[in-house]
Amino acid sequence: MKKIPESSGKNEIDCGSCVSKGCTSCSTSNSNSENHDPTLFTRRNFGRTVLAASAGAFLAGCANPSKEAALVAKPDSLAAKASSDNAVVQLKKGPIMTTLAEFYKMGPGPSSSHTMGPMRITYDFFQRISKLPEEKLKQATSLKVHLFGSLSATGKGHGTDRASLAGLLGKSPAECPPQFLDELANNPDKAYKLTVGPASFNLTLKDVIFDATKGEFHHPNTMTCKLLAGTTVIYELEYYSVGGGFIEWKGYTAPEKGQPKYPFQHAKELKKYLIDDNIPLGKLLLENELSVSGKSEKEVWELLDQVTEVMLRGVDTGLMVESVLPGPIKLHSKAMAMQQMLKISNKGAAGKAITGVASYGFAMGEENARGHIIVTAPTAGSAGIIPAVLKSLRDLNTPVGKIREGFLAAAAIGYLCKHNATLSGAEGGCQAEVGVGSSMGAAMIAQALGEGPKVVSNAAESALQAHLGMTCDPVAGYVQVPCIERCAYGAVKSWTAYCIASEEVPEERRVDLDTTIAAMALTAREMNSKYKETSEGGLAVSVVLC
Ligand code: SF4
Q1: Which of 20, 30, 427, 433 best tests ligand 1's pocket when mutated (most atoms within 8 Å of CB)?
Q2: Lowest-confidence range among 25-39, 365-379, 458-472, 526-540?
Q3: pLDDT digits (tens, 9 = 90+) for 453-511
Q4: How far is the C-alpha of 475 from the C-alpha of 498, rounded, in Å?
Q5: Which of 243, 318, 430, 453 has the most C-beta neighbours closer than 10 Å?
């Protein structure tokens, strides 16, 4: 549909993370989104499914609602709809051009398009107005944000308004403290003073307006930001949250990228550089990043160190909080209790290790559900896996340099999956989100612990293989069940895959990474649409909320 820019954190990467009601955000997010828009189908039908499922629960008296709900919730027209129109893989090919800033994006969960994107938009607007001439700013009396289309239809459930207000108030999406986001949500009428140059005025959540849900919008997720003097608009810009946390605006043109020093599309070409030419993986990936992004080495390390910090802060915060997560499921968080139980556990070494890693995955997944700051890796729904892997590597005192290399290796796996299959639950089911996240985690562990390229690749292959066919069926359309628990499993499977790959004879592995990525793409194409973020099948219609 659209070209994806780079400077705004854009690219061709997808959202894949947002499944809340009515959301159409992922429509531009995927590698092949030019000819496939599964989320429009998804969101349109979601409300119907929930209503039908609720009716099933009512009829069943909630005693054993699963069967009845599933029957009632299955619209005939969708019963066996195969996604034959799902292209999954990009039609146009070339070397992988994704950059780290495009891949590891920081901002509030639970939706990269409906929460992270809007906050990045209003923060961008805040920065723009901060640079306006003083004479103009002197006239300013207020700021207004208008949400349109899907952002208006589903923004309340996603926390779009509080994320937008936080950005307007000058809070950086990567650094905003979770307490501030909670405060905004808990005090809807509270006024916050904003000072921009000589201008100073109050802002509240009411300054973020849920406007028209239907209309001829340039994009389903359209926003306008206005600086006003009374009722006169002094400065205005129309923005689009195009999926995956990426933003565009009216008149946007994507900046040019450089060519990668070591071009590759598949793991086999990458392995040729690594094994035949003996180029270390970390060096190759860094040099590609430098040549494509135009960043300096210092800037690349700063970015990865910030990603590390945000992830660790998220895990640590999640381990200290016990709460009922937002939304209709009334899901109780588990991370803190799991950590506390570890201290008195008699589960033995295996039980303790698994509980520890799983608790980290829960911690970050729960933080995402709370709408706190996360890093897409590869998506928001799967954002608990890499932080759990990272935290467990830190527990082993893994040096910073090795952690950075691990992030590069993880990104390379994500790039390969994105380029040759998909990273979107709406296109490929959960194998594309949690499956890829777990595969990235396995590569990260292997690289950080000093394994060679064959083990890194085999570990990634093993973890991805273990998730092939996994469906996306979030209950009530919230990124909670099964997403959070799957993040915990994904991280544990990263370790399992690493353990397998590092103990076997690498040359004896019979399946290579490219083959498994191709299998994921094939499975994605053939997967019934009910299991692709539509909340039309599986757990979504089996669990009934009373
Ligand atoms: S089930 Fe998996 S793919 Fe679907 S929203 Fe949850 S984490 Fe994402």
Answers
A1: 433
A2: 25-39
A3: 999 999 999 999 999 999 999 998 889 999 999 999 999 999 999 999 999 999 999 99
A4: 31
A5: 243
